[in-house]
Write a structure and sequence with these properties.
Two copies of one chain form a homodimer.
Chain A (H helix, E strand, L loop, with lengths): L2 E8 L3 H12 L1 H8 L1 E9 L16 E2 L3 H4 L6 E4 L6 H13 L3 E3 L3 H17 L4 E2 L10 H7 L6 E7 L2 H13 L3 H10 L8 H5 L1 H15 L1 E3 L14 H4 L5 E10 L5 E10 L12 E8 L3 E8 L3 H17 L8 E3 L2 E2 L8
Parallel strand pairs in A: 1-2, 1-4, 2-3, 4-5, 5-6, 8-13, 10-14
Antiparallel strand pairs in A: 7-9, 7-11, 9-10, 11-12
Chain lengths: 343, 343
């Protein structure tokens, strides 16, 4: 019998349920390889009577968040609260950190907004904070930025990290349909949420870029000074030259020791650019460093099972490995336009 | 003043010299972020009088390997011995492990041949063994396979990991020249070594595949039963259909719980495959898992500064993180041919 690790869940939607299934399916594996046993002690939910995809008969469901964040039997807190109630998520995670619990997070909007405070607190309380699932889904971009290019200098980070916009733009291009038709189709096929305005306007992508720039360039960009370009009013035919395709991208470049230029919005990509291969719910992220050169990462950006798999990796990681966030400077970016940006 | 970590070097060629430069350039960074100081205690070289690219006046050079492997002041051993003298490399690394030193390795041939013994010893002696630079250069493929898809099942690993063959095949295709002309060109431009037969025959790629399959699929393939297909006698025009390009690839697929099929050699790639984008000294590796789906990794496969940067990341990693190699089963692969292999 291995060492028992108490796990608490904040949220039990699609992703949370899948993480619990993952834990159940891998009991033997975790015992054998890590000499540990994961025990789900309590799960915070907003509505205790909601029908769930998994059997919760032997899980302690609670609407009292203190049953998680103040529970001394819990060593790791898994946060899957989704987009709504960002302040509630922040407070619960912060309290958990202050109570010495390691954290595996997924809520990108909460991380974009409160990530600096959470990272500082995790250093201060000497706990491990991971959020691989928050950007790029299955792409190991957070851990790569945390572990690679030490003493190197990351000069550019750019890519595609939003599946809704990819779906909409490729449907407009391939089927010559209007923006609103394409968005309807995306919703029908599960590539867009009911309220997808943040995806379309580039705010979701901006949030993800912000998270990556902290880890990669050690800067926290002030989002008030960045105006993402929405894909809503794009004239595909006018913008789209022969051989190019348009995708919503983010782009950040270190132009001097103190300056960063960035762009979030639609960009025409040349046919020889690898980003042209990105379709459906795949994401792709490029990282260019002074010494190690150009690296690229590709993988599924969304999906319940996929996200759960990545959060399970994070769960193992917080118990095995030690990472301290480096000092991160607040910065005001210079904004680029699509035209003066060369990929 | 931080905690002093004694480093010993096995080999001081292009890569070893660059790692020492990297350590010197990053003294302040390592002190500030990790509270440590790297101190190069001794460097094993075959010829003490050889002219070096770096100033070695304050480095203790020795032709006695015991000055490294038996040196109680050394906590981490950095191996950059290159391709020659594989047995000597193995013995020195094994002895270092037995003496409790963490290891950062680069010699892929030694790892392919003796890796199982070295990994077992590293578990037994409770030391950390890293070898990111041995496969895919700057691509964080080893750490990704070590850290990701926990409790998931990796079903396919394939890609391009040999720059010499990429250069030769693309020169033959683009400039309509013969194999031997292309190889001459590759040597002149630094994309091929003087003796490049292992690159051409696919043995180098097979060695790298073997290393990746241990980490990803937890199997050690018996190389005696795999016949790589050389690119030497390829008839580019006959093989090359419209829109395809030919590259030397490796491919391994788990076809059942006990069976793995594999192929190493030239393969015609369709124009919509991302591997078509790989040129010069870039490598690209695809990993497909049951739950997390398809992931791909792209980056520079070679270069002194690039390799040094990755070994420096490993150096930090062995001191921060804990990894135990999982059980690895010996296996005999079924061999595929290029024709019955679908990417």
């Amino acid at each position: 019998m291995g060492k028992v690790i108490g796990i608490g869940f904040l949220g039990l939607g699609v992703v949370g349920s899948q993480v619990i299934s993952y834990i159940n399916e891998n009991r033997e594996y975790v015992k054998e390889v890590y000499g540990m046993e994961f025990s789900v002690k309590a799960v915070y939910v907003r509505d205790i009577n909601k029908k769930r995809n998994i059997d919760t008969s032997d899980v302690f469901l609670t609407t009292n968040i203190a049953d998680i964040v103040e529970n001394p039997e819990i060593q790791v807190c898994v946060e899957c609260m989704g987009g709504a109630g960002m302040e509630e998520t922040y407070k619960a995670v912060m309290k958990s950190i202050q109570n010495g619990k390691h954290i595996v997070m997924s809520s990108k909007k909460c991380l974009a907004t409160y990530g600096m405070k959470l990272m500082e607190a995790s250093n201060q309380y000497n706990i491990q904070l991971r959020f691989e699932a928050s950007v790029g889904g299955c792409i190991p971009i957070c851990r790569s930025l945390m572990q690679m290019s030490k003493g190197d200098e990351i000069r550019k980070i750019y890519g595609i990290v939003n599946a809704t916009s990819t779906y909409v733009l490729s449907a407009m291009e391939n089927h010559k349909i209007s923006f609103s038709e394409a968005l309807q189709q995306a919703k029908a096929k599960g590539f867009a949420e009911n309220n997808s305005s943040e995806d379309i306007m580039g705010i979701d992508t901006l949030n993800k870029m912000r998270i990556l720039l902290r880890l990669g360039m050690k800067v926290d960009v002030d989002c008030r000074y960045i105006e993402p370009v929405s894909i809503e009013n794009i004239d595909i035919e006018a913008t789209n030259q022969a051989g190019t395709i348009i995708r919503q991208i983010f782009y950040a470049e270190k132009t001097s020791a103190e300056d960063i230029c960035c762009f979030v919005g639609p960009k025409a990509l040349n046919s020889n650019h690898m980003l042209q291969s990105v379709s459906e719910n795949y994401n792709m992220i490029f990282v260019e460093s002074k010494h190690s050169g150009l690296r690229a990462y590709y993988g599924k950006g969304a999906g319940g099972r996929e996200t759960a798999s990545v959060m399970f990796d994070d769960l193992i990681d917080v118990l095995q490995n030690k990472y301290r966030f480096e000092d991160i400077e607040p910065i005001i970016c210079n904004c680029l336009t699509s035209e003066n940006l060369v990929l």
